[in-house]
Amino acid sequence: MPQWLQWALIIGGVIAIALLAGFIVRQLRTLQASKRRQEKTEAFQKQRRASMVESIQVLAMAVEAEQMEYSEACLRIKGLLDHVKPELLEQPPFAVFQEVHDLIQHMPTHRARQETDTRFVEKMDKERRAIEETHAGRIREAAVALREQAL
């Protein structure tokens, strides 16, 4: 084999090795970056879940202390439990949050409430208060159980 051919093959091999090494380094960096992004996402989700659990606990304490309307508490707790532990909404005593939510979800809130006819709002408030009175004991009981529940 001529010497020039040997050198050409050696140089070709070195180039192939360099290209493969560069590819491997780039893949490792991509994997590391992906792992960092995944860890950040997991940390964010863990922090977000902890924040939701804390909000649920605060809402439960507010219900116990009668510092907020039960209907509003049910809407908020149901929304948070949907993300944290939705299976609780099917179990007693927590099912009351889902029940009250289903009974009042059609009622206007926030801006829609302000834009709705006053008589209709008064009618809805009366209906909401009746629902709250009907379910008040169960809502308080569920709030106490929720505060003690490990989420």
TrEMBL record:
Name used for this protein in its record: DUF2489 domain-containing protein
Pfam families, per database record: DUF2489
Membrane-spanning residues: 6-28
Keywords assigned by UniProt, alphabetized: Membrane, Transmembrane, Transmembrane helix
Domain DUF2489: 17-146
InterPro entries: DUF2489
Source species taxonomy: Bacteria, Pseudomonadati, Pseudomonadota, Gammaproteobacteria, Pseudomonadales
Keyword Membrane recorded: yes
